[in-house]
Amino acid sequence: MCWDVDPDTLSGTCVAMCEGSADEPVCDDPATACASGNDGVLNLCLPACDPLAQDCAADELCIAFGAPFTCNPDGSGDEGQLFDPCGFVNDCDPGLFCAAPAAASECDPNAAGCCLPYCDLDLPPNCPGALQQCLPWYEPGEAPPGHEDLGFCAVPQ
Fold this sequence. Notes:
Elements: E1 2-3, E2 13-14, E3 19-20, E4 25-26, E5 32-37, E6 42-47, E7 60-64, E8 69-73, E9 85-86, E10 96-99, E11 113-120, E12 133-136, E13 150-154
Antiparallel strand pairs: 1-2, 3-4, 5-6, 7-8, 9-11, 10-11, 11-13, 12-13
């Protein structure tokens, strides 16, 4: 599929679509993961990444587009900074994700979402918002290998 098409040049990048079943999608390239979106209609093999390292190209974000973390086009433009409102998964700057506004008192409660940081559960707490804590991204025992330390900054509910 032609992915990340530039609206001016109409040029994009060819990426493989996932194979296998909806329950067990497969990508031939081990450096990629199956990113599933639009209720399972869009299933692409995109570069796998680490959200704490943000190890994607300069114009991409490491985000959870479906279950795995993959490199996706950065849609934040000049916005997408800490505590900015967001409406899509790729609306926030690198190192941030689009969270529920209730996760930080600094967020606009009427916005669809709010840009908040990922955090490392193994490091001392360093969340920027008032009363925020580094909470686990995954339920206990459900983190994929290499992501056991992944957390997100939020006010505990």
